[in-house]
Amino acid sequence: MNAQHRAAPKDGMRVRFDRSAVERVRPGLVDELRRDPATRVLVVRGDTAQVTDGPLTELRMVGADEAPDDAEWAFLGRAGDGGAVLLARAGSPDQPEPGWASLRAVAGDLGAADGDLLSTAVSLGRWLRDSAFCARCGQPCTLENAGWSRRCTGCGTEHFPRTDPAVIVAVTSDADPERLLLGSNALWGANRYSCFAGFVEAGESAEAAVERELFEEAGVRVRDVRYRRSQPWPYPRSLMLGFRARAVDDDEARADGEEIAALRWFTRAEIGEALVRGDWTTGGDGLLLPGRASIAHGLIAEWYAETA
């Protein structure tokens, strides 16, 4: 390992995160890096990690000797300064721990590198937790590729982390470009609204999934379906594909009454007020939008910025 890697600091990742996937095939990589005092380790419990309490929210890294004894290890990649970063997946906490925060709660406050790193760590950690046995024959699996694959000790099948594609859609009005259609899930509070989302089914394109989900959940036909952006979202293991679409007929909008309890056309002014208020985590009496960590928030804020 060169001097640049050995000199890497442990206090934060202010530079871009590189998965460095070409290194994963090197035998003994994780053990080698665990012996290197310059290696940074991100400990993850469930979907939580330690964060700093300074003026900037950053992930708190530790040395390999500070990781829990029962941790399962994987190579996450390298910081832009060349420093190696390992994942130590530990057991989920019995209750919230001071100084720890979930990806869902803190991702919107992290920088791009830390946000990417935590999302990767939570996704990979959940797969490590759930994949100890072969889905084909039930025999135990061993880790390979620095924690990024498992091989069955019985039938020899190789398993990789699974990602399920899902679509999420911001629907604009056909009659009035100043209006956006949002829905309230049956499991949420009465004034919490978001974009419409659902998994892509077998043999289905993402665009077809957009049309199907909107018709099933909101009763609307849509056109002008346009891809906007994507976001990994390990709840449970999704890749959210963000779209914008336009309703064919605003009057068709009807909540399905099962997954979606209510839906509304919101004006630009109402969306703007909710974005400024920013009480998506603390609650409030007005419209509650998704938190900054989610792609739903990004799609809504993007629409508002374009029409403001």
Amount of helix: 10-25%
- Residue share in β-strands: 25-35%
The low-pLDDT segments are 1-15
The total strand number stands at 14
How many strands, what sense, and barrel or not for the largest sheet? 6 strands, mixed
Helices, by number, come to 7
What integer value in Å does the Rg equal? 22 Å
Secondary-structure element string: HHEEEEEHHEEEEEEHEEEHH
Q: Which descriptor suits the 3D outline? A: globular
How would you describe this structure to a colleague?
The chain has helices spanning 3-6, 29-35, 103-106, 112-130, 206-218, 268-277, 295-307; strands at residues 40-45, 48-50, 72-78, 84-90, 100-102, 141-144, 149-152, 158-159, 164-172, 179-185, 196-199, 222-233, 238-247, 260-267. By secondary structure, the chain is α+β, with helices and mostly antiparallel strands. Strand 1 (40-45) and strand 2 form a beta hairpin. It is globular, with a radius of gyration of 22 Å.
